[in-house]
Design goal:
This protein is mostly helical and 119 residues long. Helices cover 97% and strands 0% of the residues.
């Protein structure tokens, strides 16, 4: 009977650790994605400022071109905002998953301490 508990605990522990490692890899990738998206937002904002300056000081054709470019930039900013929003929601799910995994690990440790104290 005791051997069965140990095998079950070992199997459960392996699954929990694998799940945590997978989740950590997902979080790492999502963090990388978020950094790339925010870097893109910074670049787009900088370009928009340049076009805004041209709209203020340029001739008619330069202003028209700048206006069109700012419209394109705003479209890209909106697309990036949706992307970072999705990444944020996925990160939130992974954090909750990590919390559940931590609870599972805590239960395993408590079980191991209880078994050890019974011996």
């Amino acid at each position: 009977m005791e051997e069965m508990k140990w095998k079950d605990t070992e199997s459960t522990t392996e699954r929990v650790v694998e799940r945590m490692e997978t989740s950590m890899c997902s979080m790492e990738q999502m963090s990388f994605d978020a950094i790339n998206i925010t870097d893109s937002l910074v670049t787009l904002t900088s370009k928009a400022r340049e076009y805004a300056a041209t709209m203020k000081n340029g001739d008619v054709s330069e202003r028209e071109e700048s206006f069109e470019q700012i419209g394109r930039i705003l479209d890209q900013v909106l697309e990036n905002a949706f992307q970072v929003n999705n990444v944020s929601h996925e990160l939130e799910k992974e954090v909750l998953y990590q919390r559940d995994t931590t609870d599972s690990i805590r239960q395993i440790i408590e079980f191991l301490y209880a078994v050890n104290n019974d011996q």
